[in-house]
Structures are given as structure tokens and as C-alpha cells.
Amino acid sequence: MGMSAIEIKDLTKQFGSLKAVDGISLLIPEGEVFGLLGPNGAGKTTTIKMLSTTLKISSGTAVVNGFDVKSQPSQVRKSIGIVFQDPAIDIELTGKENLDFHARMYGMSGNERTKRIKDVLAMVDLSDKADLLVKTYSGGMKRRLEIARGLMHYPKVLFLDEPTLGLDAQTRRAIWEHIQRITKQEKITIILTTHYMEEADFLCKQVAIIDKGKILTTGTPKQLKTSLGSDIIMLKTGKGKALASLLSKQKWVAKAKVSDGHVHISLKDGETRIPAIMKMAEKKNIPVLSVELHKPTLEDVFIRFTGRTIREEADAKQMLRMQARMRGMR
Prior knowledge:
Elements: E1 4-15, E2 18-29, E3 33-37, H1 44-51, E4 59-64, E5 67-68, H2 73-78, E6 80-83, H3 95-105, H4 110-123, H5 139-151, E7 157-161, H6 169-186, E8 189-194, H7 197-203, E9 206-211, E10 214-219, H8 221-226, E11 231-237, H9 240-248, E12 253-259, E13 262-267, H10 270-283, E14 288-294, H11 298-306, H12 310-329
Parallel strand pairs: 3-8, 3-9, 6-7, 7-8
Antiparallel strand pairs: 1-2, 1-4, 4-5, 9-10, 11-13, 11-14, 12-13
Helix pairs in contact: 3-4, 4-5
């Protein structure tokens, strides 16, 4: 292996005064699932749109499968598959007809089309549903058909933008397993955007955490989690700031910060430190309402780099939207 499927240098996308993607650089190796992890509006979809030539690059360079996105867009398009968040399948056609239509657009011959349709439907477990109209499919089946469609023309790189958005946990899990199998079977590179921590953890060999158009950190999920100093203790208290500043003075505390109404402490050997923490809080009359200990997750990595949870980010956006709506009603 050792080759890069994608090379990005100082990639920027500007919409007026807003930098949706702010000078990101990445090397994505061939043959693995690479995750862009971040909240909505972080710049993930914008990045994928630039890499897939559907959105013009403001500045910087991107090379996909050895082709320059700016100067060789048609070669890039031929060698990639894309599954965007918005469905691009025709629900009035059957699964098979959708795939056949896509293959014709790529100029595949009749025999090749028939064989490939059979193969990709088997890959996503839809062989028995090939002749049903897509409008009878469940949400998970439609998403699997989209993935099959993205694979029809033997792409070297497949972009999956939030592939399990809006699906229930069980369906999501099934799609993860399909994605894993496809990567191995097709020897393909998959670039996946997600704001689901467990999705990135389960699927991705490497993850880049992206927020406000910038890449904050990159590594394997394991590297990112162990970089936090092993354990996280979460304490609920009415005096979060006081407790956090008290704890950050301790040598054995790697970091203490207040987020989401809790004090998050990163430290080694968490379970052995809880009694000492409780004693210190009691001494300073800081009531501790609950204590949780857990091994670091990618959510904790996100909190470390941004000071907030991805959920808080989503809630804040929702709130702004509602306020704007209310203003509009006045």
C-alpha cells in the first residue's frame, strides 16, 4: 500500500466573509476508511464537495486518485463514488433499474452492467429486493442502495457523507458492517463524514476531528483516546468552576474543565483517585451530586479540543434556528 488516495494542502472554501473550510491539509492512505468527525456546520460536507469537484475550491490544492481536482475534474469524477446526505435515487424505479441507469451514465456495456448490478446488490444484501420499486424500501434499504449505486462504476475512492444519518441504531450498525465488508472486498478507500462518535470509532482506521473549518487533530481512534491521559472522571456539582480550579492545581490531574454542567477531569488510574477528590471537595464545602468514571471516548477528545460536546453544538444550532423563526413571526 503506502500510497495516498487523497492529498490535500491548505484547502480553503470561502463563502463571502465566512471560511467554511479554513486551510486544511491531509494525507489519506489507500485502502482504508478515513473519518472526518465533527458537528454540523464544521465544514465536512463542504470538504467532500470540493474533493468530488461539485464545489469550486477557493484556494489550496487537492489530488484525488492521482488527479488534480482543479485541472483534471473529469478524471477525478470517473474514479470516485459519492453518497451525499440528500437521496439521489428514483423511488419510482426498481432497485435494479436505478443501478442500471447509473451504469449507463458511466458508459458501461450491457454484460458488464448485468454482472456488476448483481455483485453490488449482493454486497449490500439487496439481491432479493432488486425488482421491487424503491418507494417500498425502508430507510436503511434506500441507504444501502445508494451505497451500491456509488460502487457501480468501480470507484477507487467512495465518499460517504453522514451515511447513517436519521437511521435507528440497529440499521446503523448493519450499515457499518456493510461498509467494513465493502472496503475489504473492493480494496477501496472510503472517506466518511459523521458526527456520531461511535461510528467513527467502529469504522475508521484514522480520524480527523474538524470544527469551524479547521482540523484540530488527526490519528487513529485509539491514539486520540489515549492522548487524553487514560481516564475521565465526570463530577456533577453546583460549583463547577471552583472544583475545576481546585483540581487543576493537583499534579496527578492532566486537565480539569467545566463542560455541559459537569467537571471533566482527565487523569491516570481514575478509580484510585475518587476518594481524594471527594475529600478535597468536602473540605472546601463543594457539594458533589454525582461521580462517573469512564475510559476516554472520541467525545472526550472532542471536548478536550473544543471545550464542548458535539451534542451541545447541535443543540445551540437548533436554538439559533428557533430564535430566528420566532423573530420572523413577530
